[in-house]
Amino acid sequence: MPKIRTQRTKRPPEGFEEIEPMLEEFAKKMRDVENEPHEGKRIVQSLWPVFRLHHQRSRYIYDLYYKRQAISKDVYDYCLKQGYADANLIAKWKKPGYEKLCCLRCIQPKDTNFGTTCICRVPRAKLEEDRVVECVHCGCRGCSSGD
């Protein structure tokens, strides 16, 4: 009988132990949100806290690496490979005009009725003053960088 290969996880690089408590805190919050009752909410509304926590965790790692230079490239790459941060979302944050993007679904034209981006991507100055903007996908109230 052939030997069964198990996938070994790499040991975390030096410096990961500094950010590990915060990542564990995000994981704890995510478990709490997933176990929260969702009766009385719309289906998409029950997913909004998950999107917010995913954004916060990715933003935390992005800020540590690009803004404060507090972690090394090895720790950053390890976090991306292990799924602690969303590499595609971080790639968009590096582009001008997408610095405050909340999720990737807001810029996908196939998810909207008219083939455009989400309403939360419209700058507040171009909207009516008393209009409340709330994204259908993630619940953000505006993530356009042109505010």
TrEMBL record:
The keyword Membrane does not apply. It holds the Pfam family BUD31. GO terms for cellular component: post-mRNA release spliceosomal complex; Prp19 complex; U2 snRNP; U2-type spliceosomal complex. Keywords: Nucleus. InterPro entries: BUD31, BUD31/G10-rel_CS. Its main location: nucleus. GO terms for biological process: mRNA splicing, via spliceosome. It is found in: Nucleus. PANTHER family: PROTEIN BUD31 HOMOLOG, PROTEIN BUD31-RELATED. Belongs to the BUD31 (G10) family. This is Protein BUD31. The lineage of its organism: Eukaryota, Fungi, Fungi incertae sedis, Mucoromycota, Mucoromycotina.
